[in-house]
Amino acid sequence: MLIGGGGERKTLRFVARYADACNLFSAGHDEVAHKLDVLARHCETEGRDPAEIERTIIAMANPLDDVDAFLTDMEGYARVGIDKVMLVPGSDDPAGLVRGIGEEVLPRMREL
Q: What is the pTM of this model?
């Protein structure tokens, strides 16, 4: 079960107790690191290893606008403990967007 949200008192406590994964907004590396620290404290209270919980973010960006900047940003999220990124970019050409991400972003992102 994936639980999305970053509420520190209830949502992240529910994640620690019940979830297989949590999804946070990509609100900046420091903010996400803080939310993951809160989650770790809730896991300690629940007697659960936080490593059991997959940590994901939603990125509301088009990585093709600036691939290098996007990858630098994602590298920062990986450093603070994010395992997976879900993209919600807008595009007038969804097929082209997916093709571009597959060709330009994913091969480099795997290296992170």
A: 0.88
